[in-house]
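Narrative progress, year one. The postdoctoral researcher (J.K.) led the effort to move from monomer predictions toward full complexes, under supervision of the PI. The following entry was the first complex the group processed end to end, covering 1279 residues in total.
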Amino acid sequence: MSTKKLNQAALESWVTSMIAAQRVFAVQAKEERFTFAPLSQAQDLRLDYDVTILPPKKYFLPQREDLMEFHVKGEYRSLTEKEPFILLGVHPYDVAAIAQMDRIFSADNYDVHYMTRRRNATIIACDVQRPSPNVFAGYINTATVEDGFDVLLTKIGDSYLADARTPKGEALLAQAKNSGQPTVADFEQREQVWKSNKGLLRKQKLKCKAEELPDILENSYYDPIWEEKSKLCFSCGSCNLVCPTCYCFDVQDDLNWDMQTGTRTRAWDGCLLRDFAAVAGGHNFRRQRADRYRHRYYRKGKYIAEKLGQMACVGCGRCVGACVPNIANPVDVYNRLFMSSKNIYVPEPATLLKAFPMTDKETFYELRLDSGHELGHEPGQFIEVSLPGIGEAPISVSSSPTQEGVFQLVVRRVGNVTTALGKLQAGDKVGVRGPFGTQFPVHDVMKGKDVLFVCGGIGLVPVRSAIKYIMDNRKDYGRVTILYGMKTPADILFADELEEWRHVPGVTVLETVDCCDDTWSGNVGVITKLLPMVRLNLKNTMTVVCGPPVMYRFVLGELSQMGMPEDSIYISLERRMKCGVGKCGHCQMNDVYVCQEGPVFKHSEIKDVMEAI
Amino acid sequence: MNKKVEVHHVTRIEGHGNIVVNTKDGKIEQVEWQVPEAPRFFEAMVKGRSWQDIQSIVTRICGICSISHSLACIKGIEAAMGITVSEQTEKLRLLAHYSEQFQSHVLHVGYLVAPDLLGAKSVVPLAESHYDVVKLVIKLHRIANAWSDLLAGRTTHPVTFKPGGFSRIPSETELRELRETLAGIVPDLKALAGVVLSLADKLPQFERDTEYIALVQPGTYSFYQGDIGSTDLPSTTPVDRFESVVNEYLPEVSTAKWARWHRDSYAVGALARFNLNSAYLSPLAQEIVQSFGLKAKCTNPYFNSIAQLVECAQLVETSLALLEELLRTGLKQEKLEARPQAGEGVGCVEAPRGILFHRYAFDQQGNCLSANLVIPTNQNHGNIQKDFEALVPQILDRSEEEIRLLLEMLVRAYDPCVSCSTH
Amino acid sequence: MSKPKLAIFDFACCEGCQLQIVNMEEEILNLISIVNPVQWREAMSEESDEYDIVLIEGSITRPEDEERLRRIREKAKVLVALGACAAGGGVNRLKNTLNLQEAKETVYGTAANMPHLNTSSTKAVDEVVAVDYKVYGCPIDRREFAYIVRCLALGKTPEIPGYPVCVECKLKENVCRYEYREICLGPLTRAGCGARCPSLNTWCFGCRGSIEEPNIDSAKEVVSKYGKTLKDLENRIALFGSK
């Protein structure tokens, strides 16, 4: 099969020729969102979309369709639609969903309505250019697809590679004029897009593997999460209706005015709807909201998964966005179940991939969970690192969640565990529990704002996670200012990264040391000295402070003098922590568990907690 | 000889009204137009409600003229809050407004009045005896409703009207289709006028001079803008002084308030508009006027239905011109940006049955502090009573059955919206 | 089989639902081919006391209207509440949030105490007599009405949506009104309208009344998340007296 390279003009003229030849349903803007709709001119095509409101399943299983016409005497005439059409711009996860629906509607009892439409369709898939914030296809293996389409479009620079994979696709692609011949470099670039999309389509972080869900759900039927989450459920079925793999329907009859002939129609239904499982006579087999809420997760993660060998979820994230009370996020639910399926005190094995000293006290580690799971942390969270026979220690995660597959720690040798850690090398094993605790609010209140980081010593370690996250999503934030103080120039951590950040537009990095020799030409003195050196828009700045306990009083005092609102300041506190899960009591300050309600606090939340600072 | 006519709940009108006539030995003892409709208290119900919700409430005053109520309400809110709207919005609103006038007039002339002229009790037997006429009426009515649907989002109780503009506007393609449709029904209008003309002798001959009141705006046959005009007064009155015109009072026989100005009663509606604005009728409307030999000032209340027929032509012709203008300039998607503000304002439009006033006051957050709504039929009730008093002595020699029919036809001629008037 | 006799009676309302029957346009001829209208004051002068199916439009707001309704019920074989006012009280239920005396004075001023203005609280038809079927909506949807009449003529219970407007709104692929920070009652309101208002870019204000088990607690959480107050929510819910 052939591949062609099409620039924007060639693509548009190809699409124009399609419109002239048959019905084309393609992605177009609807207000601020996108939908598949009949395409009347090529310029309306929006292949740069994130996700459509409804999946393209509506072209195979329409919202409403007449199944048959009948006569009350008992004559039936089935109705099927036979006109061919092109579906243009289908994302890989939706291609995967269609492939799954195909199995369901063709196996066992062949559904002629669905399958006729399906056979009449030519699917032009398109690799994702702009991931939706709710997508997690990268975890379900649906971020890219190998088959299930006729042509695949992948954007390479300003052009598209169009790859025909079926005779139908080949014939259609032959219509494309003024196309170029792709080069080896183009194919390499496409490989790169596929590789990167597998990572980029992981906006919602699934902690377990999709294959593990049937087993996790096996033991979760009575989990309190169903009751808890479904309390806010409207029973509106939105999660069902926007799902590319949900296919339940209702069937109803209506007579014509002659009262002799009529139509039997099917329409989308949803198992979240109150009366979905109610029978004549009134009994409802899933009476409670929680029953219905649970059913969806079981159907997606277990019932169909076991039957077909793949989840009935392709990670499009539509349900996440469609649920007004925000309770339909499968990643949320599956992560919770995954976590509670584990003994909270038993660590998970992890392997050190890298271990090297950063200073004479601190060592840098890069690790991967042996299970292959993501750690699934957020900036500011910590883990318990475990060495059997020696013990456990709480350690902040220093890498950004945007870094896939691995996570990084920086450990100062101070106690039994950290000293023993210091002796380990790449290839050695440790145990890991977590992540635990609260996070720096990079996803909500910091967005669109200027951010000021004030770090002392190893306070930079947890903060680095947030800085790196912001650097990876640079356009979502305003000016970034990093103030970093250390005892001596020899104590500096991540010197190369600080240097790199300094050169990012809109980023300011200032360092200071307490004492030094002549080789240091930078600032000398306590960190508060740096504050007057930067210009801050106080109203629009969110501040993160992290460092040794003594630093907080001075920095917070100075910020307050400058007029920085207490609601805009986040601090990360250190305490003794044994369990990390709000039980052992060591980390408590007054009535606050630092491991659960912290370690990241809004300053205003704890300024009246006497033992805090 | 004694005569007694008692009609409890006159049929083929909107709402509940009674006719009571008693004579003893040829002398009239009682002639009454009664309004026993259940009061609904809309002016109290909107108090404390948000400016964003008022329109959804008050449109429910009337199922037949809900677009008029919505527009009067929104104009009132906009006047109170100093909200201005684009020329496009005004034109689209006007187009919506015309659709309702047209729908209401077709409904009244075709479904409610025609049976009287054709000697039937309702349109149901006419579906057999006068199938072509019924088909024609249904067709015009369907087109009118589709027209309302397109602009207002729904035939009854509009959805798209918002303070400041529209939540959704039609596409240019849809407007072009509407233009085609309206241009296509001109022959149907002529046919309908022809049918009614052939039955014009069935309209009772009865004259009573009264005061006629309607919106007037120099140069136009106004339905939507202008000042309050009266046939008894050379000058006009600004709409925000409408209370000095309506002078509402409540008689014991009515749960709806009645109105009077320079005389004991006055009339509003199609005939009033014709009497004040006939100089500005469109060509086809003028043609129909001439065919009926109609002249302003016409004082036969039964001719209100003819004035409605004339207005049907006026509405279609004016709308065609309006569509032309809209399509020439093209449609723009406009953002709704109205914000609430304290203030008081009046919205006034001509509803199908006559001039309609809404006054509102709001606080800073846009919560409604007070409302005063005066509906056309409020203003016609007194005039119906005065017509009764003038007509009954002229027809005392007729049978009870005939008296009853003539009085019912008189009530119907006003196209009263009784439940509307007891809002 | 003779056609069932149909009668229509109206109480406190705008009579817009009856108008929807007229608005069936050509189909009204189909309608009268399967039912025989014997009394319909707004459109017909014929009258009859014998009827099989009765449509009641409007809400009940006076003692004398309750009496009249009971008499109608006695003669009716099947009684249908037509439209929001009859089925749930409709917009007239707002009156129940008012002090009646004050409301009368607001509307009638010094005439407020005239005896013929006596009125009681607003009731839905089923608060006075037994109702067999309800046609929801303000106004009713004429397609749904036609379907219901055909079901009644066939002797079948019509299948009316028990699910919320969100279902039909999703099927229409509308952008959710909450994305525009509007208080939309779609999640609490019975579907059947085809999500008309959200499809026209505005919020649902609940004219088809509440679904059976509306999740008001969730609605409260949601509106506060979108920066609205509980009062904003309650005020909107009050418009059509949804639970």
